[in-house]
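My current task is to audit a protein record that another person submitted. Alongside the sequence sits a line of tokens, each denoting a local backbone shape. Where you disagree with what is written, explain briefly why. This is what I was given:
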Amino acid sequence: MKSSFAGLGIGLIGAIVLAYLLIVVNFQSWLDPFIIITALPGALAGICWTLLLTHTTLNVPSLTGAIMCMGVGHSEQYLDGLLRARTAG
């Protein structure tokens, strides 16, 4: 169980770093991707709150779902930033 959590934790950190670097390339800025990445703890707080309300334990399937939820939140912000940049010029 501990090795599963360690592997998922390393995967989560690696995914965040890789996503940040990909956004840096697309936006050609270091600040805009940082602002997008800082919204991820808000999604994580919502996940923890939901687990608390539903009395669900933190296990491998729930952590996998959390990673997927953070990916969806990240892609929404990323697409919104691209649309704003496209309409601005």
About this structure: Helices lie at 2-27, 31-37, 40-53, 60-88. The two ends are 50 Å apart (CA to CA). The CA atoms of residues 27 and 33 lie 7 Å apart. The chain has a mean pLDDT of 81.
